[in-house]
Structures are given as structure tokens and as C-alpha cells.
Amino acid sequence: LAVPEIYDTRPRVCNLGYLRVPYLEEDGKLAYKCPSEPVEDYVAKGGDFEATIGRKCLCNALCADAGFPQVRHIKDEETGEKKEFVEPGLVTVGDDVNQCASLLKQREDGTWGFSAADVVDYLLADLEEKEEVGSVQEQLKELRP
Q: Structure pTM?
């Protein structure tokens, strides 16, 4: 979903609703909205348009990550034929979100970001450092009588 070509193929829908936000309709009824649902629906429910920009559906993506992707039949915009759409997963950073700031680099086009390769380099550097510490500890053990 981080790749624009993949994100753009995903129909905007909030069909699981685990992260919906409650709100009161004009008649006082409790209803729900999600900034990942179709933009016109979210705005009609009183949501801010700006909150919808770049939103990804975490509910569907995390279910896909767990091996339970939603499968829908959707109409192909170009051909008009029905096609199968399988929800893509989404890699999340979990508790390491603050660490991501150290990985950010400004790209040639002026945008900021980091790649999977940057993350792998970061993880391997930590592993290599631990291996070096382990190696020093092993050397010290050898020096002991």
C-alpha cells in the first residue's frame, strides 16, 4: 500500500470497521465514519477532507498480514468487467515509530522517506554490533585462567 501504483488500485471501502470513529447524526442517532472509506461518504458524515488524504485501510491490511485478506469482485474501470481484488498487506513499524525518524533521508525530488533497504541496513548494523560485542566477550573468556 506504500507503493502508489498498488494504493491506487485499491477501492476505498471501510467494510470491516474496527477503527471507525463514532459520531452523532443530525437526528441524534449514533453512526460511524472512517477516513479510509470513500472520501465523499466520510465528508458527508462531517469528516474533514484533509483527513482522507493518503489514508490506508489498516483493518483490511492487517487482516491480510495475518493471512486473511478480503477478496472482492470489483468492476474494472477500463473494461467494465468484474475482476477479483485481493486486499494487500501493509508493513507497519509498531513500537519503533520513533526510530523511523533516524532513517529519514531527503530524496532527490525533495520528498522525505526511507526504503526497506535502509531498514535492513539498520537492523543488520544492530546485529553486527551485537556480534562484535559477543566476539569481544568470547575473547575475554579465552583470556581468563
A: 0.60
